[in-house]
Design goal:
- With 330 residues, the chain is of the alpha/beta class.
- The chain is built from seven helices and 13 strands.
- It has a four-stranded antiparallel β-sheet. A three-stranded antiparallel β-sheet has the order 3-7-6.
Length: 330
C-alpha cells in the first residue's frame, strides 16, 4: 500500500465522522466542567505597562520549508494570529489566578473574522477555520516556562512541524475547547503580543526577575514528514475532497460588499471565467431584502454568496434604524 492509499484509508468518511462525534462529546464535557471552575476572562490594563520583561518568545511567521501550494494556508494562519492577539495583548492577570487560552480567546468562527489556516491532523496539514492558532499557544507556553510560571494544563502535538517550537519540546496544542493551555504565576503578570513582518513576539511582564526553568525534556524532537491538502493532490482522500489535480492558475478572488456601480463595471470588464466573485446576494434572490447597497449584478466569474451573514446584517441594520427612530421620537 503506497502513501496516498494509506492516507485515503485514514481520512475516510467513517473515521472523520467518528472524529467529529468524539470532538462534540469532549466539547460538551469540557463545557460542563467549565461551569464550576473559576477561570476568568481578563481585560487589558495599564498597571504593568512599564514593568520589567520576564521572558520573550519569538517565532517565525513564515516557514522557510513551506511550498508554494500551501503558502496560502500560512497566510491564513497569520490573519488568525492577528485576530486572536486582540484578545490577549495587554491583558493583566492577578497573582495566583489561572490564565486559560480558550477562556481568553473564545471560539474561532468566521463571524469573528477567522479564515482557513493550517491545522495539523493525523500527520496532515489541512485547511481549517482558525487554523495555525497553535503558534500563539506555543509561544505563550514557551514564555511561561522561561518566566518560571506554573503550567496547569499543556498538551503536545502528536506530530512535529519542522521549524516550529515543537522541535524544542516547547509546544502547546489547543483545540476548542477541550484541549487548553493554562498557567498561573505567584505575581501579577501582563501579556504583550507583537506581530512584525516576519515574527510573532510574545512578552510576559511582571515584578520579579525571571529565572529559566528546565522543561520536562530538553531533547530536540525529530519532525515527521507531513502531507498537506494543497500539494499532495490525493484525489481519493476524503478530507482533501479534490475533484482534480490542483494546477497553477492565475485566479483572482473579488470580495464585494457595499455596491459601487463603477466597481461593478470594473469587475464585469476584468474578471475571468475562473475568477471567484463573492457577493452578499445573487441577483436572482428575492428583492425584499436586497437594496442598492447589496444589489450586485455580476456577469462574469464563478459567483459565491454569503447570504446568511448578509441577511443578518440587513435585519440588524433595520432594527438599529428602528431604535434610532424611537430614540429621536422620545
Amino acid at each position: 500500500m503506497d502513501t496516498r492509499e494509506a492516507l485515503a484509508l485514514k481520512h475516510n468518511f467513517i473515521r472523520e465522522s467518528v472524529f467529529h462525534l468524539k470532538s462534540y462529546l469532549l466539547i460538551f464535557k469540557r463545557s460542563i466542567s467549565n461551569l464550576s471552575d473559576k477561570t476568568k476572562k481578563y481585560t487589558s490594563g495599564t498597571k504593568l505597562t512599564n514593568a520589567p520583561i520576564l521572558s520573550i518568545s519569538e517565532s517565525a511567521l513564515w516557514n522557510k520549508d513551506d511550498n508554494k501550494d500551501n503558502w496560502i494556508l500560512t497566510a491564513g494562519k497569520i490573519e488568525n494570529l492577528r485576530i486572536a492577539s486582540r484578545n490577549l495583548h495587554g491583558i493583566e492577570v492577578p497573582a495566583g489566578k489561572t490564565f486559560s487560552f480558550w477562556k481568553q480567546v473564545g471560539k474561532l468562527t468566521c463571524k469573528k473574522g477567522y479564515v482557513p489556516g493550517r491545522e495539523l491532523r493525523e500527520g496532515c496539514i489541512i485547511p481549517s477555520i482558525g487554523g495555525g492558532i497553535c503558534q500563539l499557544s506555543n509561544a505563550l507556553y514557551d514564555a511561561a516556562c522561561k518566566a518560571g510560571f506554573e503550567i496547569q494544563e499543556r498538551h503536545k502535538h502528536t506530530k512535529v512541524i519542522k521549524g516550529s517550537l515543537a522541535e524544542q519540546n516547547r509546544d502547546a496544542t489547543v483545540k476548542w475547547n477541550y484541549i487548553d493551555l493554562r498557567f498561573r504565576a505567584p505575581i501579577d503578570f501582563r501579556i504583550e503580543i507583537e506581530l512584525t513582518t516576519n515574527k510573532c513576539i510574545v512578552r510576559l511582564k511582571g515584578i520579579y526577575e525571571a529565572k529559566n526553568v528546565p522543561l520536562e525534556s530538553k531533547e530536540i524532537v525529530t519532525p515527521w514528514p507531513l502531507n498537506d491538502c494543497y500539494s499532495c493532490y490525493n484525489t481519493a482522500c476524503y478530507i482533501c475532497n479534490a475533484k482534480e489535480k490542483i494546477q497553477d492558475k492565475n485566479i483572482t478572488t473579488y470580495i464585494l460588499d457595499e455596491h459601487w456601480k463603477e466597481y461593478e463595471n470594473y469587475v464585469n470588464n476584468h474578471a475571468g471565467k475562473e475568477d471567484i466573485i463573492l457577493i452578499p446576494f445573487r441577483s436572482s434572490q428575492p428583492t425584499w431584502y436586497r437594496n442598492e447597497q447589496n444589489a450586485w449584478n455580476i456577469t462574469n466569474g464563478i459567483i459565491r454568496t454569503f447570504s446568511y451573514a448578509a441577511f443578518q446584517r440587513v435585519i440588524s441594520f433595520h432594527c438599529h434604524k428602528k431604535k434610532r427612530m424611537f430614540f429621536f421620537a422620545d
